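Support request from a user on the community tier.

User writes: "When I paste my structure tokens into the form, the page sometimes reloads and wipes my input. The last time it worked, I copied everything first. Here is what I submitted, just in case something in the input itself triggers the reload:"
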């Protein structure tokens, strides 16, 4: 399916992240921003005026716009399901912010709604579109690491108390779905299983050590066993004070090689069997010394990876294929995180995947 003037995008929710989406859509190939929706008229009008598109405060009217082809969901995490279901029934394709929803039951309803109405569903996991990620994935697929032994993710980020106080939904189970893992660390956890394979067991611990007035964790550690037999660790936090930001890191080591990725760079790129292009990759992806994007300031994020997400969606629609992060693929990181929560809330008891239902959640102390 192709559109002569490009696919029309509309954004639902006009908070901070909507501006990144608007900038990415404005810069992309094959798409254009036609509208925004918010229940708050001032927010919708401000964003619409900034990007020269239509503003809506009535959701049925927003969905009825014939110029609208793709709806981008940018509401709080626990408020994704209803606007997605209504968009799907209106025949609009959906691109949804992470996580798709905050429980497996709501995630599955969301996926099923898009499937039953014949519309595309894509999740926003922009780190998959980084150039370093593509090089990493190719090395894994080429077997350059050999048999993977260890696969780890480290997200030692910082969020101020003011960040959590800025929205009543932040740090709540109902609308945030969790804390440091499901909000900040989810992108890196997505990359971990994307690169190292599916997870079989988790054992986790989590607590709230650095912030007040939140229900969820700001500090978590998990041990993982992958289906391949490899072992791994996830460390996720929003309580690691570093005003300039710590980069997110993924370390994967195997019998024939090791790669350490730090945001969009490599600190280790070593293999038993050398290739002529290895030195070029080390040079191109050498750390630049800049702080990790979004590690301390969620507003300090480059919109280009989001642009690549939207362009991938457009290409998938034109070719009639599933986008890189379709609904079932976007579900996996949520399931891993909810399994870690189940383990942590049970005192670190091992939990096997697949997870059959969302664990009963209570405030962390």
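"...and here is what came back when it finally went through:"
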């Amino acid at each position: 399916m192709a559109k002569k003037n490009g696919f029309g995008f509309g954004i639902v929710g006009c908070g901070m992240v909507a501006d990144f989406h608007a900038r990415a859509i404005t810069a992309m190939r094959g798409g254009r921003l036609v509208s925004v929706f918010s229940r708050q008229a001032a927010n919708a009008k401000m964003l619409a005026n900034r990007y020269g598109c239509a503003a809506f405060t009535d959701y049925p009217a927003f969905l009825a716009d014939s110029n609208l082809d793709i709806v981008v969901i940018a509401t709080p995490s626990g408020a994704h399901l209803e606007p997605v279901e209504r968009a799907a029934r209106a025949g609009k394709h959906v691109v949804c912010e992470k996580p798709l929803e905050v429980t497996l039951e709501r995630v599955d309803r969301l996926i099923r709604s898009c499937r039953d109405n014949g519309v595309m569903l894509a999740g926003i996991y922009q780190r998959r579109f980084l150039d370093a990620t593509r090089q990493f994935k190719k090395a894994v697929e080429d077997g350059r690491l050999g048999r993977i032994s260890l696969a780890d993710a480290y997200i030692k980020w910082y969020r101020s108390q003011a960040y959590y106080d800025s929205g009543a939904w932040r740090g709540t189970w109902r609308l945030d779905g969790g804390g440091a893992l499901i909000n900040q660390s989810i992108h890196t956890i997505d990359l971990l299983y994307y690169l190292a394979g599916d997870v079989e067991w988790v054992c986790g611990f989590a607590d709230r050590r650095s912030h007040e007035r939140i229900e969820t964790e700001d500090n978590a550690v998990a041990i993982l066993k992958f289906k391949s037999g490899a072992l791994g660790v996830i460390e996720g936090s929003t309580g690691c004070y570093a005003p300039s930001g710590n980069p997110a890191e993924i370390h994967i080591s195997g019998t024939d090689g090791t790669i350490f990725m730090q945001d969009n760079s490599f600190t280790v790129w070593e293999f038993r069997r050398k290739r002529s292009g290895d030195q070029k990759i080390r040079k191109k992806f050498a750390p630049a010394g800049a702080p990790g994007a979004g590690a301390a300031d969620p507003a300090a994020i480059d919109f280009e990876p989001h642009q690549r997400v939207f362009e991938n969606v457009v290409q998938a629609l034109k070719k009639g294929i599933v986008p890189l992060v379709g609904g079932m693929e976007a579900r996996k990181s949520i399931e891993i995180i909810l399994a870690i929560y189940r383990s942590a809330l049970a005192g670190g008891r091992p939990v096997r995947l697949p997870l059959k239902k969302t664990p009963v959640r209570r405030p962390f102390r």
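Agent notes: The reload is a front-end session timeout and is unrelated to the input. The first strand starts at residue 7 and ends at 12. The mean pLDDT is 95. Escalated to web team.
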